[in-house]
Design brief:
The chain is an alpha+beta fold and 99 residues long. The chain has two helices and five strands, in the order βββββαα. Strands 1-2-3-4-5 form a five-stranded antiparallel β-sheet, covered by helices on one side.
Amino acid sequence: MRRPVLSSWRVALGCIEIDGLVVELAWSRLSDTVLADFRDGVARRIGTAVIGCRDEPVFVAQPDHLDWLGYENRAARILEFAVALYREDLGRQEASDPS
């Protein structure tokens, strides 16, 4: 099953609810990263999960959300979910590749 395409460079991966707020995750084809955005709110972009081009995945937070992300291990929870969805989607792409 193909994921919904948000634009020519962003593909929706899924959502996670953290302490009552919905975080949407989308794969950026341009940078091969996973973007984390609040579904509702003024400052939507929370940060970026850098996965494919590093030995260990990291979450790079937007400055406006450092306080929120630092509470109850929220950044790590988002990163863990983003990595799982990214790898699941990558595996699905490899399985459907005819070559």
